[in-house]
Design a protein that fits this description.
The complex is a heterodimer of chains A (369) and B (388).
Chain A: H1 4-23, H2 30-36, E1 45-53, E2 59-66, E3 79-85, E4 88-94, E5 106-112, H3 118-126, E6 132-135, E7 151-157, H4 161-174, E8 179-186, H5 195-204, E9 208-214, E10 223-224, H6 229-235, E11 243-247, H7 250-262, E12 269-272, E13 289-292, E14 297-300, H8 306-312, E15 330-340, E16 346-347, E17 352-355, E18 359-367
Chain B: H1 10-30, H2 33-56, H3 63-89, H4 114-127, H5 158-167, H6 169-176, H7 180-185, H8 194-218, H9 223-249, H10 267-276, H11 285-290, H12 297-302, H13 311-324, H14 334-347, H15 353-361, H16 365-379
Helix pairs in contact in B: 1-10, 1-13, 2-3, 3-9, 8-9, 9-14, 15-16
């Protein structure tokens, strides 16, 4: 009987939700619940900022409380964070820095304000307690293997610390028994993120050691200057036998990759990219490839609008006016840059809705069509 | 004759189009948080009115509460369909990238499925505005709303059909998207409409389910009153939507066009056609909101993808441009525009006098045709063409 009760309660709740959906068609229950409290929604994840801190002058750490659709994450993964800036919803990927254990409805993000970054600057300047953000389910394969390796080397640089710190905190919570060394690079002592948290982790666990590297200072850290393999020899002489997890700025990533390649152990190195590749924008000569994800077709970019190119590739995407009025041909561009043929505006946003009939690809473009 | 192509010189048309493009670019550059805040406020108001209306039905045994419930629910449905649904589904808020404001996924509180309507309205009607045989909104396939539609004894029922359409407008729109006239003509096969019909069935089931089954049942012994209340709210919305929409393109002096006239149209010529083919309604701020700003039908047809709250802001400028190029800017209060539409519905029910005489007296086809055109000029002052 006691075991039946919760099941009955669940069934009763499901029936109530199903009835509510029928009553509140066509908008659905969430569109009403969110007007009471944005975090009441059932089918999507929302986050409320509960704490804002500025660990360094150009970073912000947000503690988030999540709505009920959140199902947890594996350390190292990232989430897509959405925020409305001047009326437009912008989405960027950030990796949580907290352990995958602990409060299942809490997430901690540390974001560095990129001078050219619309979203990171906005969050750095305007994030406040009570602010509501959209959050996706976690994604990404930059995670520790199910069977934790005996020896682990975790390397991060700058704000790339978050996914690797999450791994380290997770290992601590699991009572990890192998040996793990965390090497974090910053320009100077003042730029070190999570120093106290890292020191505490090292104190808490015999299996964890933490080392710092200052790239722009000559003393005060365990290693100094830009990364070299000698840094690893000094801190973790066994690094060639360890599984290594790396996240940081492009310079650090390239240097570590080169060291592992030279040692012939690239398969031991696991990385997470943060900086987007530089865009090649050329509006006079068409370059690149247009890929239509749904149909699996691709075509060399002819420089014509995407609707024409899709049709020439034998596709029949839904469309109407062919002049940018009716929005029948709107599709999601998953990556790449397009030029609006009406306004000349270039747009390289990921997962952006574009009108095929007035969008010209600039370089490689992937379309869900 | 002042046909579509002869009103302005090609240079004038180009300059005219450029001036309108400038307005558009200025507004698009200015879109931002205020526009999103505005539509979110309207949505919040609509959802509030809806919940209030549904709740007040529980007091429906007291007449003032029943009336308040109907008023609340009517206002909710009107806001949902006009200022929110119609405008969101036009893509007016697609630039926000907010999924709930996305034109492709939005669904409204009326029988017609958004998907079907988006095609027939956004594409067929807005691209081919007032082009006879292309714009299926001319008379909705059942009425004779243009003198160039060939008269047939069937059209004697014009006022009756119009009344029925007004009373059951949501079902008219629902049915309209099936394009029965094209099926009859053989342009569209029954099998091709399978998807459209599936969506029609699914949406109708949901709408009928909530308004006429679930909500009435939930009020227990008051079920008949709730049923009646929900039906009344749908009726009020039907009459309102019909009135606003018919005043958009059918008052006297609004022009219609032939396919030949609109061949190889430039953007400027397209703008010109939108202005000549649309009519505004004057009124206060609340009236504009409740009409989904379709009271600014002219501005809407020029810039269908710009948030409707912007139309009143640019109306004076558009009007000034019309005056500059000596173009009509058709506007008037609701009662005047409605009377004009009603007159047209009745007048066009009757056969052109020449045609009748031809039928009785046996004129030759040629002279009948000449007379027909003359008579139509009298019937509808807007058409300034005279018999060839």
């Amino acid at each position: 009987m006691t075991t039946l009760l919760p099941r009955r309660a669940t069934r009763a709740r499901e029936a109530a939700v199903s009835l509510a959906e029928r009553l509140l068609t066509p908008h659905g229950i969430d569109r009403y619940l969110e007007l009471v409290d944005p975090l009441l929604v059932r089918s999507e994840i929302r986050a409320r900022v509960t704490r804002v801190a500025h660990p360094t002058s150009d970073t912000v750490t947000l503690t988030l409380s999540l709505s009920r659709a959140w199902r947890g994450f594996s350390s190292g993964q990232y989430v897509r964070v959405s925020v409305d800036i001047d009326g437009v919803r912008r989405t960027r990927c950030y990796s949580p820095a907290n352990s995958q254990y602990g409060d299942p409805r809490t997430l901690e993000l540390t974001i560095k304000a990129d001078p050219d970054g619309l979203v990171s600057r906005h969050l750095h300047e305007h994030a406040h307690e009570g602010m509501v953000l959209g959050i996706s389910h976690p994604d990404g394969t930059f995670t520790l293997p199910e069977w934790r390796p005996d020896s682990l080397l975790l390397i991060s640089g700058g704000s790339g610390i978050t996914p690797v710190l999450s791994m380290l905190r997770t290992l601590r919570d699991e009572g990890y028994q192998g040996k793990a060394v965390f090497l974090h690079y910053a320009d100077t002592a003042a730029e070190v993120l999570y120093r106290d948290a890292l020191t505490e982790l090292a104190d808490d666990s015999d299996a964890i050691d933490v080392a710092f590297g200052y790239t722009a200072a000559e003393s005060g850290a365990d290693v100094h200057g830009l990364f070299t393999p000698e840094h690893l020899d000094a801190i973790a002489p066994w690094w060639r036998e360890a599984e290594t997890y790396l996240c940081g700025p492009p310079g650090l990533m390239d240097a570590v990759r080169a060291a592992y390649a030279d040692a012939g152990i690239s398969e031991h190195l696991h990385t997470e990219e943060f900086s987007p590749p530089a865009l090649e924008i050329d509006t006079t000569n068409a370059t690149g490839t247009v890929r239509f994800a749904h149909s699996g077709r691709e075509t060399a970019n002819s420089g014509d609008v995407l609707l024409e190119q899709a049709e020439q590739a034998g596709l029949r995407p839904e469309h109407g006016c062919r002049m940018g009025i009716c929005f029948s041909c709107t599709q999601v561009k998953t990556s790449g840059c397009v030029r609006n043929a009406l306004t000349g505006e270039l747009s390289a946003e990921e997962d952006e809705e574009i009108q095929l009939c007035i969008s010209v690809p600039v370089g490689d473009v992937d379309i869900n069509c | 004759m002042t046909g579509l192509q002869d009103r302005l010189t090609p240079e004038q048309v180009e300059e005219f189009g450029r001036e309108l493009d400038e307005i558009r670019q200025r507004i698009v550059a200015d879109l931002g948080k205020d526009d999103v805040d505005y539509i979110n406020r309207v949505i919040k108001t609509q959802r509030g009115l809806e919940v209030a209306g549904r709740g007040l039905m529980y007091l429906g045994f007291l007449p003032p509460f029943w009336l308040a419930a109907v008023a609340s629910l009517s206002a909710s449905k009107i806001l949902d369909n006009m200022e929110i649904g119609h405008n969101v589904m036009h893509g007016q808020y697609d630039w926000t990238r907010i999924p709930e404001l996305n034109s492709k996924t939005f669904e409204w509180d009326t029988a017609a499925p958004g998907d079907n309507w988006r095609h027939s309205h956004n594409y067929l009607h807005h691209t081919h505005t007032n082009v006879l045989d292309k714009d299926r909104d001319i008379g909705y396939g059942v009425l004779r709303m243009d003198p160039d539609q060939k008269w047939h004894p069937y059209y004697l029922g014009n006022p009756v059909y119009a009344t029925l359409l007004a009373l059951f407008f949501q079902w008219g729109v629902w049915f309209h998207d099936l394009e029965v006239d094209r099926i009859v003509k053989g342009e569209l096969s029954w099998a091709e409409t399978k998807e459209v019909r599936r969506k029609m069935r699914a949406k109708a089931t949901k709408q009928i389910g909530k308004d006429y089954v679930l909500f009435p049942l939930l009020t227990g012994p008051l079920a008949p009153l709730t049923f009646l209340g929900n039906a009344s709210a749908n009726l009020v919305r039907n009459l309102w939507a019909f009135s606003i929409i018919f005043c958009g393109h059918f008052p006297a002096d609004v022009e219609s066009f032939t396919e030949e006239e609109t061949e190889n149209e430039t953007r400027g010529q397209w703008y010109l056609r939108q202005i000549l083919g649309s009519a505004n309604i004057t009124g206060g701020k609340l009236f504009h909101i409740m009409s989904g700003n379709l009271s600014h039908q002219i501005e809407h047809h020029l810039f269908p993808d710009i948030p409707a709250r912007r139309y009143p802001q640019i109306a004076d400028e558009v009007r000034a441009i019309c005056e500059k190029y000596d173009l009509p800017y058709n506007t008037g209060p609701l009662h005047k525009q409605l009377a004009s539409v009603a007159k047209k519905i009745v007048t066009l029910a009757l056969p052109p006098k020449g045609a009748l005489r031809a039928l009785v007296g046996g004129h030759t086809d040629k002279s009948t045709e000449a007379r027909r055109v003359t008579v139509e000029t009298q019937q509808n002052g807007s058409r300034q063409e005279t018999a060839a």
